[in-house]
Amino acid sequence: MSVKAVDEKDDKKDKPLGSQSLFRGLQLIEILSNFPNGCPLAHLSELAEMNKSTVHRLLQGLHASGYVTQAPSPGSYRLTTKFISIGQKALSSLNIIHVAAPHLEQLNLEVGETVNFSSREDDHVILIYKLEPTTGMMRTRAYIGQHMPLYCSAMGKIFMAYGKSDYPDHYWETHQQAIQSLTRNTITELPKMYEELANIRKQGMAMDREENELGVSCIAAPVFDIQQRVPYAVSVSLPTAKLQQVGVKSLMKPVLATAQRISQELGFMTYD
Hints:
This protein has about 270 residues and is α+β, with helices and mostly antiparallel strands. It folds into two domains: about 90 residues, Winged helix-like DNA-binding domain superfamily/Winged helix DNA-binding domain (Arc Repressor Mutant, subunit A, Orthogonal Bundle); about 170 residues, Beta-Lactamase (2-Layer Sandwich), CATH 3.30.450. The strands form two sheets. It has a six-stranded antiparallel beta sheet with strand order 6-5-4-9-8-7, with helices on both faces. The longest helix has 18 residues.
């Protein structure tokens, strides 16, 4: 028996009986998603490793269902916008906590420190999920549902950095009385904040260097959605002395990796 025959036999064991056409159709959909301007039938057949007659038959079924249409180039096919509607419905049905929690729990076990997950509500950060330290002794004062200022928290600066370019001006103008030095490290000057936000976008992460509370530092990363917006942020809080001991880089990597995994769950794709 040839290797190909064995592979096909094993492949059939992994698939429910009678679903071969379904799996092949989904395979064609995945391939066509890489060809927004259309893919010729012959090339599609090569990529899918199916004969042309099978590919043509499957395409006819997808076309009749409204998922595939003929591209401008003769003999080529592309996906329709019906997938956009389905994708938006799938995203709207996601419970963000259910999506993010497994990744946040993994981060919590990996670093052993407080893990926070937040969204932005107008001009504030709202904490929507929190995990206490597994090895560290420090318990932060933050609680689920708490509103925090944008200017003096790592997650808040994430939202400012990835928001509209003129938003910091608006924020400073409308929150002059609220912006105050909570510690000696709090950034209260707009030019310095613009420098900070530029560095955040460059590094892909933000830090709270005892800007909200002495003795407590925080590292945060942005969570992107399918539209490349930043609706959420993830962070790790720990004693500054502990951060100095383990080093920023040792925490930065798992925080960024966690944010990236949640972003991928929300449909965000990175391009090289």
